[in-house]
Design a protein that fits this description.
The complex is a heterodimer of chains A (about 110) and B (about 120).
Chain A (H helix, E strand, L loop, with lengths): L8 E4 L5 E6 L11 E6 L6 E4 L13 E6 L2 E6 L8 E9 L3 E4 L3 E5 L1
Parallel strand pairs in A: 1-9
Antiparallel strand pairs in A: 2-6, 3-4, 3-7, 5-6, 7-8, 7-9
Chain B lengths: L2 E5 L2 E3 L5 E8 L6 E8 L5 E7 L6 E3 L7 E6 L4 E6 L8 E11 L8 E4 L3 E5 L2
Parallel strand pairs in B: 2-11
Antiparallel strand pairs in B: 1-3, 3-8, 4-5, 4-9, 5-6, 7-8, 9-10, 9-11
The chains are: A mainly beta (about 110), B mainly beta (about 120).
Chain lengths: ~110, ~120
Amino acid sequence: QSALTQPPSVSGSPGQSVTISCTGSSSDVGSYDRVSWYQQPPGTAPKLMIYDVRTRPSGVPDRFSGSKSGNTASLTISGLQAEDEADYYCSSYRSLNTLVFGGGTKLTVL
Amino acid sequence: QVQLVESGGGVVQPGGSLRLSCTASGFTLDIYGMYWVRQAPGKGLEWVAFIRYYGVNKYYADSVKGRFTVSSDNSNNTLYLEMNSLTVEDTAVYYCAKDGRPYAGNGYWFFDLWGRGSLVTVSS
């Protein structure tokens, strides 16, 4: 079960916007809207940031937004803040009742 | 307070067995699909197993199929992961996680609540 492809790292200055991509295939991202994004600061459990491609759970700032085009999903963080520094993981439902994660992207706020 | 608390991790020799527990509080576990997700040291997340609400269906990642078994005991609101024939590649922090909505036929496959994790180390 190969992982979804994410860039290993992205960075941005406070106030800027960054986008993290998540590329899958027609067996997962391309066929299902069950794409989610998780934030994981060092040493902590992941936290849900986006589900069903673009839905934010209550309590997640609207600076976080999700989208999808074809086999690629994206997480955009606008108005970067120091507290956004963390690892980010995408996930997607894959056919035959399985789930696949991306390899993770380390976000550095400069 | 709504939370998940894992326990049962530790050090085990290759070929050994271990059972993890995940106790839920603040919600009724049996109406939600529940998942196990693991994270090897310094690595990314890997989905391990899913159990449907009421425990009707269970699904596993290929890497653990035939060796791991997920189950639940609704009388004490606890999820389990029985792990057999462990290898060094199974070394990881194991998280239990809750489905984002109740009564999902085969899961909604997003996790709105995670436990803090339980470390399993497989080493001789």
